[in-house]
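Worked Example 4.2. Consider the chain below.
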Amino acid sequence: MLRQPKAAKAVNKTTARGITTARKVAMKKTPVKTAKKSIVKTSKASFSAAAAASDEYDLVVIGGGPAGYVGAIKAAQLGLKVACVENRGSLGGTCLNVGCIPSKALLNSTHHYYDAKNHFKSLGIEGGEGVSMNHEAMMKTKEGVVTGLTKGIEGLFKKNKVAYVVGKGKITGTNDVTVALNAGGSQSLKAKNIMIATGSEPSVIPGVVVDEERIVTSTGALSLKAVPKRMVVIGAGVIGLELGSVYSRVGSDVTVIGNVNRIAVGVDSEVATAMQKTLTKQGLKFKLGVAVQSVVRKGDEVEVTINKDGATEVVTVDTVLLSTGRKPFMQGLGLEEMGIKFGRSIDINEHYQTNIPNIYAVGDVAGNKPMLAHLAEEEAIAVAENLAGKHGHVDYNSVPSVIYTNPEVACVGASEDDLKAQNIPYKVGKFPFLANSRAATNLSKDGIVKIMACSKTDKILGVHMMGPTAGELIAETVIAMAFGASSEDLARICHPHPGFSEAVGEAAKATAFGKAIHF
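Applying the procedure from the previous section yields the following structure tokens:
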């Protein structure tokens, strides 16, 4: 279940049913402490006359990732004068440049390769076993996707009249951002409001030297010059499982090491167990519940020392991927100098304001919640809407999460484990893709849809699934939860036949009525 940031506490309330339900922020009752009405019409009058008109803005956004660029565009669409500061030299942040997008490009390429090698013959297609992978061409395709999308964001900035400032931004005053320009020199921006949207960076194990060649983070793993014969992935979460799958499919002997006795923490344990079995069939190996003691490069090899129950083992490989999570990027923003409060991340209230009311923080850098690009976007949109005098809000109980392995894993809301731990009365319905006709025709029968609902009211509390296109199927259940639907509501929706989505409808029937039709 999603951990809620401070910003979520005021926008949700706990009902007598024992489960948190989302509602809109009551902006009229708890107004944002800023002169919203004056932003568009009179903000220029509050700026120093010494500043050039082109450098005076209603909103300056620091960071051009999913939160930053989306927030900048939305604010501009609502009539605010906006500048976005980004020092990478290309927009889109980690997600687009060295995260979500390039990893999905590699997952797509390697999925087709693996399918040809292992499944084409069963489909009546001969010769698939003999296909080969051109690693350089695959990487070139990935880069082309990234470049096209980053240029697309630049086009959206021009279309919406967002000023794009290329450099590193630092808050130097309540209404001031100073940019160290990548091209040299500096530029001062005056801002009625400032939004910090600098995202996150990989966390690494203390004492481990990352060279992005043999010991790599996700950034290095996306651009390896060759496929390693042996790879250790430290971390059994989203990043590790996705990139581990990429290299396993093209021939690497991949071992995933995790410090707890399961993979995909946060996903329903029954679904995670099914996922591990499927990935094991695909060739991944797992060493779980172990502690990593050291990671040391020795020439062209890396030695990983692990310990489980007092027994020490040294695993020697060609490449080690550190996928042990991410941490907020807060360096060099002027937080200390400005007295902006922060701990592990920047402290914010329910309106995403820091302790300085006109300075906001959104996305991975702020609050305590999952680091998801789509959640960051929604927070930034909420801030933009609030600044324009509207009522922006985020429903933290209806935020989906997806792992893009094959099959995909997706979830929203509570898992069965969460409900048990919180002693919330619930009922559960399940439906396997083994019994889904479309999955049978596509030979994609691994997976399950699992729906949890309140045993008293039938309100859907969570949906966790593994199966073909699970990352798309979850959207239907997100809508259902956002509108407070019951499992019977979902069960009575007519799903197209033959379709993967029928599995969702069948699971809903099993939850609402106690039995599915086709299982």
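The two ends are 28 Å apart (CA to CA). The CA atoms of residues 510 and 516 lie 4 Å apart. Compare this with Example 4.1 before moving on.
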